[in-house]
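Protocol check, entry for the methods section draft. Step 1: assemble the input record (protein sequence plus ligand SMILES). Step 2: submit for complex structure prediction. Step 3: store the structure tokens unaltered in the notebook. Ligand used here: zinc ion. Step 1 record:
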Amino acid sequence: MKKQMNAEEAKLKQAEYLDLFRESKALLDGHFLLTSGKHSAQYMQCAQVLQYPERAATLAKGLAASFQDQGIQTVIGPATGGILVAHEVAKALGVRALFTERENGVMRLRRGFTLSPGERVLVVEDVITTGGSVREVLAVVQEFEAISVGVGILVDRTGGTVDFGLPTASIIQLHIQAYEALECPLCAQGIPAIKPGSRKI
Ligand SMILES: [Zn+2]
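Step 3, stored output:
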């Protein structure tokens, strides 16, 4: 039987993970001008934490723990964000790692990668905002008649509202509020907005 974390433990764990993201500058607090033109008080760039292999492994172990007893045979994630996550989670579970890629806009397994009918697969991704890429990977798994056992996500930006119809675990649930420039409370306070990635921050 899987040991269920109680809500308090889960909250504590999430706070520790958030610290890891902040220390890695994967999660920034401030005043940001997003590519959408909206403004926000937080900015997330997951690749920043994954540049540190030990931190990537720590996060992956956290995800792997949720699926430890599920008989996972293969971990699979969409390129590019899911490649490292699949690799690290697979390492933690002692199984193989695959990634899907888009070819002419269609998500598929390339490079001779294949799945067997009935193979138990865990689908992973670094960040989800709508879950679109994860759904495309789930469809690929289904094409091979393999079994998607669950979905593991490092950063769930839907704030936990996404529903894949499968057991889903995330390391961090994050909802970053985005404001129209005219309604931005940070602009109202006269704090200058920074365009992430455009300079050293
Ligand atoms: Zn603003």
